Amino acid sequence: MQTLTPAAAAIELREIEKSFGTVHAVRGVSLRIEKATITGIVGENGAGKSTLMSILYGLYRADAGEIRVDGRPVGMASPREAIGHGIGMVHQHFMLVDTFTVLENLVLGAEGGPLLAGGIAAARTELARLAREFGLSVDPDARIADLSVGEQQRVEILKVLFRGAQILILDEPSAVLTPQETDRLFGILASLRERGVTVVLITHKLREIVAVTDHVCVMRQGRVVAERRTADTNVEELAELMVGRKVRLDLDKAPPRLGEVLLHAEHLTLVDGRGVRRLDDVGFELRAGEIVGIAGVSGNGQSELLQVLSGIRAPDGGRLTVCGRVIDADHPGDPAEMRVLGLAHVPEDRLRQGMVAAFEASETSILGYQDGAPFTNYYLLDGPAVGAHCTGLMERFDVRPRSPTLRSSQFSGGNQQKLVLAREISRQPRVLLVGQPTRGVDIGAIEFIRRELVKARDAGCAVLVVSVELDEVLSLADRILVMFDGRVVGEVGSGQTDERALGLLMAGAAAA
Amino acid sequence: MDEALTYVLLMLASTLRVATPLVLCAMGGLFAEKGGIVDIGLEGKMLMAAFFAAATAAVTGSAWVGVAVAILAAVALAVLHGFACITYRGNQVVSGVAINILAAGLTVVLGTAWFARGGQTPPLTGSERLPPLFLPNAGDNVLVYAALLSVPITWWIIGRTRFGLRLRAVGEVPIAVDAAGISVAWLRYRAMLLCGLFTGLAGAYLSIGQNAGFSRDMTAGQGFIALAAIIFGKWRPLPAFGACLIFGLLDATAIRLQGVKVPGLGEVPVQLIQAMPYLLAVFLLAGFIGRAVAPKASGVPYVKEH
User: Does residue A45 surpass a pLDDT of 90?
Assistant: First the structure.
């Protein structure tokens, strides 16, 4: 790298093309990735970055184009071939067998012989060496199900290194990590680079790109639209390149004008079937005209909290007051009643809870509000009224394509989310619960959705936002509650904190 | 004293004889289930194998050729199941049920066409049956020992070999196996081949070992009992073997109690004891064995994402 001649290329892609049916996912992409560097590939959902990497890893076969590894053209027909060329991939959804130990996962596919004993013993030695060399320590005999998400990711990286990979592709590696775990991951990536490993990082988190990469490549609509040295660029420029226009992710919002308390949770407790406390003594107030954000690593009780607040599940202990109605274990509410009270809910899992995927968009647009006027008269749905309602929502929330008869599942994630949000906001609720408002939503729609939430707040709605994206909570919320292990472990005003402080709370550092 | 000992030994021998097809069938089913293929069709494979074993033995006069053809018949059905569920990603339960119905019908049709005895094969004698190995009159033919051996062999293959590791992985997270560059379909087909091998042995045992010929529906639900044994054993070979023995013991008791008068109760209704395995199955499955955790990908066809 110190030489002045162009550094050797670990990978060269030339004129790669790939279509799925009528979708032209990758259009003539050429890309050169230098040895022993960290290269970031950024782009919106559907920009083609994951497809491109899947082609490189042999999961898909390119329709046209050439792949060169270390200067030699290679066919890349299967992951096995990719592994043979020293390419390894850490997928966004881990490819680990939960019931296996770390060692068993490590050797799967590289057992070293028909019997396991020898391979496992050799893997144990190799694992110890990798742990020393890269600071990647994991208990070799622990079961995957017992490991934290960060540790599981380390196992994935170890799997790749164990196979002798010199080129490591990571797909959205920080999506499931706390900021501290993310820092640790970046430390590991840097030490891999030191030892000559080439790293390719696919992400939509621009801040991370800037923090850790040497080069960055921006994709949009299947094309590479820009390549930059990371040192020569910044988050704003990258965001603009990704979307193709100027984007403002930081929100301008007026200070909140607080109204009455509309939702009051006191000592809420929820115990699951195995006796584990999913919610443990949760209490807070939500006032008209404010946005409260719930931060936390996913799986720390946020989903359960939303279920209790929206009436899907009754609390086992404690009390919830929503717009004057008291709900406790003996007086459970239900989602229909909550809607009548003026509480609307945009669920975290919009595909399964927010809509019926096989329904038409117009049906999705009234789901939950279908009974009675204006959509139903004499037990029959009023088709034209429903259609007109849906068209109206689509206009107002810019849902594309504007086609009320299209099946809900045919819309992109962002448009599905806009449709569900439109349905709930258009009822002018007094309380609005939103789970993961922008999960799987592309950057243009993110901007729009966040603005709509602020608008609802300014109109006097009490908004509760649950999100695993710290950026989002920080920019949207007026107050932030941090959840860890079913409890609210901290409350901070959004102006008085940063990612680092929140991350410590999210990791349970303050509670421990 | 001697009498009691004899009695215990007789019961033990009888239990093993009755449990043999269950054990072989359960081990076969275990390979399929571990690999993520639900196999309701154990019953049908065993029935088909029983028919072909008896029919072949009757025609060729050799029990050994009968065993070989029985294995071929069961493997053919296993591959058919694989074709429907692995290659064409069909519903595994439906395919299994179809195989059971196919076997129940085809054995009778072929039997009637070939032997004209109302679906039965001719009675088998001498070399047409599997001979006892060590103990005269104890019915300890080679397949009884094969069943006993099949348990440690299954345990060893699943727990100690590369194939077993991959098989367990494919039953849990097939996409991880695919990403490791291993063929999901070929692993599952191999599991089905092993399943066919073991169910074939189980069927042959029924018609040319334990009995002297094939009669229609002679498996009488034992394939389902084997499936229940797999679940009781929580998909582990040794506990599944134990469950088979318990079912075998109940069945052996039923045979022994036939016509026996118990003081105060009168004649014990044998049907009650024969119904015990099924009652036990219902009770145990209703939650008395704790949570039985099936392989996660069980019953789910593997579809590569695109």
Answer: no
Minimum-distance CB partner of B172 among A97, A109, A116: A97
Rounded mean pLDDT, A482-499 = 86
Q: What is the DSSP string of B17-34?
A: HHHHHHHHHHHHHHHHHH
For B56-59, the CB contacts below 8 A with 24+ separation are: B57/B124, B57/B128, B57/B129, B57/B207, B57/B208, B58/B115, B58/B121, B58/B122, B58/B124, B58/B128, B58/B213
**What tokens appear for A185 in the block?**
């991951």
Measured between alpha carbons, how far is A364 from A370 in angstroms, rounded to an integer?
10
* Window 87-146 of A, Cβ < 8 Å to B: 89, 91, 95-100, 104-105, 107-111, 113-117, 119
- Per-residue pLDDT averaged across B206-221, rounded? 93
Burial annotation B144-172 (CB, 10 A radius, 16+ → b, else e): bebbeebbeebbebbeebbbbbbbbbbbb
Q: Yes or no: say if A41 and A49 are a contact pair by the CB < 8 Å rule.
A: yes
Place of tokens 């196919």: B102
Q: Are A178 and A142 in contact (CB under 8 A)?
A: no
A18, A78, A95, A103: best to mutate for the B interface, most B CBs within 10 A: A95
Contact A179, A470 (CB under 8 A): yes
Using CB atoms within 10 Å of the CB of residue A322, give its burial: 0 to 12 exposed, 13 to 18 middle, 19+ buried.
buried
Contact (CB<8Å) A116/B165: yes
Same fold, A9-243 and A248-342+430-445+456-512: yes
- Using a CB-CB distance cutoff of 8 angstroms, which residues of chain A are in contact with residue B176? 95-97, 105, 108
Amino acid identity of residue B221, one-letter, is G
Q: Which residue of A has its CA nearest to B295?
A: A99
Chain B CB contacts of A119 under 8 Å are: 162
Token pair in block for residue A20: 């799925």
**Rounded distance between C-alpha atoms, residue A443 and residue A174, angstroms:** 17
B295's tokens: 């392989």
A89-103, B85-99, B200-214: which has the minimum mean pLDDT?
A89-103
Hey, are the CB atoms on A100 and B172 less than 8 Å from each other? yes
Give me the architecture of the A9-243 domain, per CATH. Answer: 3-Layer(aba) Sandwich (3.40)
Triad A435, A436, A437: Cα angle to 5°? 95
**First and final CA of chain B: distance in angstroms?**
71
- Token readout for B155 is 């345990």
Q: Which residues of B touch A143 (CB under 8 A)?
A: none
CA B106 to chain centre: 19
Closest CA to B141 of B129, B152, B133: B133
For chain A positions 9-68, those within 8 Å of chain B (CB to CB) are 20, 59-60
Closest approach of chain B CAs to the CA of A306, in angstroms? Answer: 28
Q: What is the pLDDT of residues A315-372, one digit of tens each?
A: 999 999 999 899 988 988 889 999 999 999 999 888 888 888 889 999 999 998 888 7
pTM above 0.80, yes or no: no
CATH code 1.10.3470.10 for B12-288: yes
Q: Give the CATH number of domain A248-342+430-445+456-512.
A: 3.40.50.300
Predicted confidence (pLDDT) per residue in A155-184, tens digit: 999 999 998 899 999 988 877 777 778 888
CA distance B24 to chain A (A): 24
ipTM: 0.86
**Averaged pLDDT for residues A277-300:** 91
**Residue spans per domain, chain A:** 9-243, 248-342+430-445+456-512, 354-428
Closest among B301, B306, B303 to B84, alpha carbons compared: B301
pLDDT at B53 over 80: yes
The answer, yes or no, to whether residue A127 has pLDDT greater than 50, is: yes
Q: Which of B160, B163, B165 to probe by mutation at the A interface, max A CB count within 10 Å?
A: B165
Q: Minimal Cα–Cα distance from B195 to chain A, Å?
A: 20
Three-state DSSP at B200 gives helix
